[in-house]
Every structure is written in C-alpha cells, then in structure tokens.
Amino acid sequence: MTAADIPAAEFHDRQRRAAESARGQGLAGLLVCSRGGGTVDRYANVLYLANFYSSFPFIPDVKGNWSARAHSFVVLPSDGDPVLVTDMPVKPDEVRVGDVRTADEVVPEVARAIRDRGLGNATLGVAGADALPWSVFRGLQAMLPGVTFVPADHVLDRLRMIKSLAEIALLRRAAELGGQAIEVMMAAAAPGKTQGEVMGEGLRAMAAHGVMLYNSFMGSGRGGNRPHIKYTDFPTFGSAEPIEDGEWFHVGLSGVYRGYYFDHSRSKPIGNPTAPQVEAFEAAIASVQAAIARIRPGATAGEVAEAGFAKLVELGFPTKSEFNGMGHGVGMGWDLPWLVPGDQTVIEPNMVLCVERSVEKHGYVGDFEETVLVTPRGHELLTHTQIRRW
Questions:
Q1: What residue ranges define each of the domains in the chain, with the CATH number in brackets?
Q2: What is the rounded average pLDDT of the residues 31-39?
Q3: N or C: more exposed end of the chain, with fewer CB within 10 A?
Q4: What is the value of pTM for the model shown?
C-alpha cells in the first residue's frame, strides 16, 4: 500500500516543511511512528513522509528476537537528513528516505538512529503517539535518558489537512471506487440476502481495484411501535437475520486506495418505500446538503456543522447519535478538521471533507455521506453515487 502516484519531490517537500515546523516550535526534531500490520489504521504519518507501510503482523515482543513488529519510524531532525527505521525490507525505488535501516529489534535501532543524528540529549516531538505502544515508548526512554519527548501530533496533522494536487487525484479516484462498491452493495441488498452476502459483493468490487476495506457500518430493520434493528459490531456486517421485504437498509462504507480513504453512506427501502422510511432518508440527506452548502474558504468547521444540525432541528429529528459531528477531513485517515459545532478551524482550498449524518426516529434509520473538495470559490462534490432509490 503506497501512494505510488505522488512524485518523490513532494515527499521531500513534506519532510522539509515538517522539519521547519518542528524547528519553529523549538524542537530538535520529530520521532514519527506508524503502525501497519496488514491493517488500514494508524499507518498515515510514515507513509506520508517516507512512502513506506509495514505489512508484517503486530505481534508481542520477544526479548532478544524482535520488538515493535508492524511499526515503522521516521527520525526527522529539524536540521539534517531523516532516517527510516523499518521491521521489514523496503522497495528502494519507492521509499523516499535515503537512510533506511531494517531490523527485527526495531526499538534499539530507533534509539541508535536518534543518537546517530546527534539527538541523544535533545527535545523531540512525538508524532503518531496513538500508534506508539507503551512498552516501546518506555524502552526508548530507558535507552535515551537524555531525550525529552513531547507531544507533536499537531505538526503532521496540520500538514496533512491541506492536500496537494496529486493527493486530490488519488482521493478523487478513491471516492469513485468507493462509490462503485456502494452501488454494487445497494443493488445486492434484497429480501433473503444476509448483510454478509451484501458485503461480499462489495468486497469483490473493491478487491478488483486494489481497494482495502476499512469498515462497513451496516444495518436493516423495521420502525414503528415495535422497532427492530438488525446489526452487529464484530463484524459490522455479521447479522445472521436476512434482509426482509418492507425493511429499511443502510450501509456506511469506508476503504483505502493507494493509502487514501473514501467514506460513503447510503440508504434504501427494501421493497415499496413507506412514508416514515422516506422521512428518515430525506432528513439525513437534507442535513448533509445543508452543511455542504456552507462549505467555502473562510467559513469555519463549526459553521458547517451548525448548518447541518440546524436542518435536523428544523425537520424535527434529534441531533444526537453515536457520532456527534457532521463529518471530518479525509486523506490518509480521518484528517482535520472535525466538523463539530464551535470548531474555529477555517476552511481552506484543497481540504477534502466527508460530510455525514445518520438519523433515527421511531426505529427508522437514514444514513447519508458525501465527499467534498474545497475549491477557491466554494466546493466540488467528489461522490457521484446514486442518492435516492425510492
């Protein structure tokens, strides 16, 4: 999984800008950590800087044999060349760091790279703390008693928030492929089918184009006086109860294409639509479209969210759900900004945003999500999946 269509010069520019940001904050450098292990979670920062992803599984450390498997690190001095430390061989024509060190014992090798760059008694910012195991961090502290580690996720969070033209092209393609998978799944959702069978059709469509599944929130059911919702948590498409005529159905599908995410949601009736079903479907659509209408450079993330929630209130739907935002940035993960009321992050050109809402009323569920590119004068819709199936 590599961002193969991004030129080498862009990676080097990212490294330069990250180092400049760290230096401007009084840091001697950054320790950047990412996790691979065959998953599509927490890999972003090292892929962003070095174009490397470790596909080795995340396994417990065995002293004297291996440590921090599935993890990779970039040691990025504020002044000096970066070092990439990996747990498995790299492809030299793809990795964008000159000094690459591969080791089974990853933790001692990271400590060695830090000392080799003259940072053994420095203050380093840690980017990717959510991917850094406690045991690994404690090991680095013991090996590097002179180093002060401080939080620095914000350095890469800020850089990743604004996309380059090459990234936008990959996100556009990711949105297209995710939309195609959604179309296949919505067509497959029919009486007698299980959610797993519907997911199987989506997986087939994604695999044909090198897309990996991140998650699939899926549900079906009936509303009214005795509502019944069919869903599971592990896996999220594992309900054994088949889809039935007269139910509503929805899917929120996210996946990864060449390191870049898509995130889409759609709903439909199974059989003839009913008025309460359509009311829920339309409320989700209306709230998302109201939020999107507010997207333009100079607006704030909070204003976008507030526009979407105001539409829900107008329509008589609750604003609370399992996710209290109206969406998020998207790139090599869920990027800034978060579309939540009160957030003062200013919307800028070349942000890519996912705007979403799931609503429920009397057991009827509507789910809808679109992807939007912020342009100099407004926004462009990147999702082109059928909206209404009723």
A1: 8-159 (3.40.350.10), 165-381 (3.90.230.10)
A2: 94
A3: C
A4: 0.96
